[in-house]
Structure formats: structure tokens, C-alpha cells
Prior knowledge:
CATH class: Alpha Beta
Strand order of the largest sheet: 3-2-4-1-5-8-9
Order of helices and strands: EHEHEHEHEHEEHEHEHH
Radius of gyration: 19 Å
Helix content: 40-55%
Largest sheet: 7 strands, parallel
CATH superfamily: P-loop containing nucleotide triphosphate hydrolases
Amino acid sequence: MAHIIVVGNEKGGSGKSTTCMHVATALARMGHKVGALDLDLRQRSFGRYIENRRAYLDRAGLNLATPDYRELPEAVASDLAPGENPYDHRLSAAVGALEPICDFIVIDCPGSHTRLSQVAHSLADTLITPLNDSFVDFDLLARMDLETGRVKGPSIYAEMVWNARQLRAQAGLKPIDWIVLRNRLGAQQMHNKKKVGAALEELSRRIGFRVAPGFSERVIFRELFPRGLTLLDLKDTGVDQLNLSNIAARQEVRDLLRELRLPGVAVDF
Length: 269
């Protein structure tokens, strides 16, 4: 069975697609067979990222490891069981096609609550939730007491993850390993960073996730998308000297892969 990695957050702009692409490509470069699905059927940022990669590699005559991206198949009415949701059928068919041939399947969820996202979370062996390092994004996870700064309880997204955990438990599946990724950590605003960090640590103990540092705000991430490249590909495309920012960003990718603690993955790049 393929290990399913779901990247989800009900807020756009948190770095889900960048996280998906770097995780999926890193695993593929390590020799693992990696499938990829994008459940944002309208925007398709992850899907477009991989399409850009294929087009660039064709133009450049390069052969670099690339995730096996698949579109969700359309649901034919005659294939649906009585009462079956068409979106459930489409996702099940896509995962079923990739599972026998992949070590990992990376699934990017839309930045909103959808049926596809809800079902995908229940399939997750590993769940990555990228979070911009601010209380605006933190509000999706938990409600805060404005006077004391204490966590009052889980919010909408955390409740959805809890429901997914319940469904997995009822099906006899292993628990979700949930990692909240602190993205866009700035060098400044140390007081706010410290407060967000303390709130996340408190919440992690209450609802059961691990906190990990993610990707800093860097221009390079936006520049890589049109060519479908990741930070790990730069030397293979003729970039001999990496600047300090790029070197630091590559280290962030290594640190993330180690923190995920995926089965059979030795991070040595």
C-alpha cells in the first residue's frame, strides 16, 4: 500500500502547492515512486506546477525525476453504486490507480472546505498543514481568548481533522501523523513569532499534532514555479553557484523531509 501524504489547510496562500511539489519531487529524486493528485479542480496549482516541469524538461532536453501526476477521472453514472457520491468515486478511482505502482501519493487539497478535501483527510497517513506564521491563520486551528492569549478550543479545520481521525479509527486504520508547518517565518517580528509558537505548542499537546519549521518567505519559490523546478533541481539545470538564500532554502527542504519521518526514507541529499 502506498503511503498517502495529504497537504491541507482551509485557507489559501499558506504554501500548500510549494510544499507538495518540494516533498513529492524530493521523494522522486531519492528513487521512490511518487504519485500526485490535485483536488483543487479549479485552480490546480500543484497540477500546473508539474505540467510546467514536464514542459520545461522537454524544452531543455533534461531527464529529472518527476512525480506521476494524474487528473481525477470523471464519474460515469453507470459506475456509481446506489447513493455513492461522485466525488468519492473519483478520488477512490484515482488513488486506486496509483496505489499499486507508487511508494507515496502526495495529495494537494484546496484552500476551502470541500467534499474531496474532507475525504482526502480521512485517507492521510501523514497530514501536513502549512500555516503562515500569524494569528490570522492560527484561527483556523483554534479559538483564542483575546484577553489572556490562551487557547479556548479547536476551530473549524481542527474539528475536520478530528472527524477524519474518527473515520480512520472506525475503519481500523493507523492514526494520522499530523504535522503543522510554520511557513513564512520572518526574521523580524520576534514578539509575534514567539506568541504564535507558544500557542501552537499548547494546542499541539491538546489536539495531537507535531510542529515543524517550514519555508521562509523567499523570492526563489515564486521564480521556480513557471519552470516547474524545485530548489533540489538547480544544479541539474546549470546553476553552479547557489547564493546563501538558496542554500538556506535547500536546508529547509532537508529539515522538512527529516521531520516528516516517512517510512523507508533516508534523507541524505
